[in-house]
Amino acid sequence: MNIQLEKMKQNEECERRKRIAEEKHKEWVQKKREEERRERKRKLSKEMAEKATRELEKMQLQEKAEVKYKEWLQKKRSEEAEKKKKEKEKEKEREAELQEKKTRSEKIFKEWLQNARNKPQPALNGYGFPHGKSTGLY
């Protein structure tokens, strides 16, 4: 009977240990799953933060590029306007020079015409040349 009692105690102890081991195993598995879930959550949040940071940097880069493009475009337009202005000024100067040249030419022509009227006519039959041309042989 003692042996049987001893065996029963041992069986009960063995069963109790088994249950404790199973409970500890279940707790360990649950902890492990919880840790893995937290780790996945942490990785996911980290990836999302990195993605958001990349998107923000991309947007900032794009805005910076747009600003530079607008500055370049404005500079180009102002240069074109300046160039057109200079061309117009040159054209005006050329026209002014042409006008001045024309008036000077007209003035000189009028003076020449006035002087030509007052000049004496050359002798047509001078020195044996009728009508100013040589005639025949010597």
From TrEMBL:
Basic and acidic residues composition-biased segments: 25-38, 45-60
Region (Disordered): 25-60, 78-102, 115-138
Residue ranges constituting the Coiled-coil domain according to the UniProt record: 4-135
Superkingdom to which the source organism belongs: Eukaryota
Pfam families documented for this protein: CCDC34 (PF13904)
TM region(s), chain numbering: none
PANTHER family: COILED-COIL DOMAIN-CONTAINING PROTEIN 34, NY-REN-41 ANTIGEN L15 -RELATED
The name this protein goes by in its record: CCD34 protein
